[in-house]
Amino acid sequence: MSEPARAPLHAWLVAPLERDVHDAIERLRRAHDVRHVAVMPDVHLAQDVCIGVVIGTTRLIYPQAVGGDIGCGILAVPCDVDAGRLADAATAGRVLAGLARAVPARRRQRGMTQAPPPDVAGEALSHPQLDAVRRRDGALEFATLGGGNHFAELQEDGEGRLWLMVHSGSRALGPAIRDHHLARADAVASGLRALDADDADGRAYLHDVGWARRYAAANRRQIALNIGAVLAGTLGATLQWEQAITTDHNHVESEVHDGTRLWVHRKGAMAAGGGQWGALPGSMGTVSFHVQGRGCALALCSSAHGAGRLMSRSAARRRVTARALRRQMDGIWYDYRHAEQLRDEAPSAYKDIRAVARAQAELVRIRRVLRPLLNHKGG
User: Fold this and answer.
1) pLDDT in tens, 123-182
2) The total number of structural domains that make up the chain
3) DSSP track, 281-313
4) Residue at 340 is within a domain
């Protein structure tokens, strides 16, 4: 028997693919209706479909190629104060304490919830079970950061200006939406499941993805507003929203590429159309970049979404000590009491963001380099 047809593959890599990553991408190339696969330099293994992968289909929607944290992304906004204001330990300590109070990692107390904006709060999801999660968790988790690699970071640009960068997503709603629709999807190949964009189940998933993206964007904005209040009280700073950059990196969108309308799935990849602004975060101890897309057709106008993991979380917990984390974070303010919990987020657990940027030079232009000053994570 002849080998099944494989979708064209284009890759921008820091290093050769590991065997399990290679195998996962090959399975995806053979999946029904997958017409194009682009691999970003931050690619790493994840369940079902690797992070840092972009695919294009004509009809089928693959929830696994979007992932669970639908709409997860970055918001970057500058402040009107000099970054040197954070050089003082006492000032940095007040800011960190303020962030811990203003931006919970998990859930808010029921009496302290913040309502999502009306265009998110008032729109029902496609199924009563999902809508129950929206009403419950949507309020308790709104304006919370989440764990893992989600963060709020204060950074310094090349002109000495202070910037805020927020990385967060749709919280509990994203995984709930993914799991609900995967249960209704058809098995197509190698553990992958798909929905038809033209039938009721496919349209329901796309509706819920749109909702989750709006929720995630509103979540990041409210986090930034709450941090802005902390910065106003501690530094006398004001956020300059007219210069904000916002992007997300777990989504599916209908786009035209080379004259063909495709469903472009990005999992751990951001859109990078010609001139489109984006933010490329490093680890909590390394620089980040503001970039503009070059509109590379072979990448389906996409870019890496960050440094990408070099070690799995379990491997990082085995190999990185709290002392090593403190050494890697020298010169950056963070809550040292959380060092033990943050070992799997150590800079050494991530790829070199500068190598990632070099590998995708034809995908984006670097417009601004930002140095981390203060990092807040949920642990």
Assistant:
1) 889 999 999 999 888 888 999 999 889 999 999 999 999 999 999 999 999 999 999 999
2) 1
3) ---TTS-EEEEEE---GGGTSEEE-SS-BSS-H
4) no
